[in-house]
Design a protein that fits this description.
By secondary structure, this protein is an alpha+beta fold. The protein is elongated. The chain contains 3 helices and 5 strands; from the N terminus they run αβαββββα. It has one domain. Strands 1-5-4-3-2 form a 5-stranded antiparallel β-sheet. Strand 2 and strand 3 form a beta hairpin.
Length: 122
């Protein structure tokens, strides 16, 4: 069985645990892996930033309570958040950076004023 470089596919000669044919291929391979990981992180951070902006703007406009469909219509992504905390049985508080919100069984999102109002960006 012949071994090949993970980056360019060239045949490998030498050490049995060798993975790359040259330092350039090794560097290029690891740089590409890092770029792929960072791309995923940038996408999650883009979503989180958008969620944070939506929560902050609603609170700034005096809307500490908003329905789930209305928040979703503003492109809020309920699947992505930075932390969650269980308050009562069946009740969770979700965090998007420093903004906290809870979702009631009736579909009302309550944005925590103290968490978001202490924000320097508002």
């Amino acid at each position: 069985m012949s071994r090949t470089c993970l980056r360019c596919g060239a045949p490998l000669h030498g050490r049995i645990d060798q993975k790359f044919c040259s330092d350039d291929c090794r560097t290029d391979y690891h740089n590409e892996q890092r770029r792929l990981r960072e791309k995923e992180l940038r996408e999650v951070n883009r979503i989180l930033s958008g969620n944070w902006r939506i929560l902050s703007e609603n609170l700034r406009n005096g809307r500490a309570r908003i329905s789930v469909p209305e928040l979703a219509s503003q492109n809020f992504n309920f699947q992505i958040y930075t932390a969650t905390q269980r308050r009562f049985p069946g009740r969770r508080t979700y965090w998007c950076y420093n903004c906290a919100y809870t979702v009631s069984r009736s579909g009302i999102v309550r944005i925590s004023e103290t968490a978001c109002r202490n924000n320097l960006y508002l």
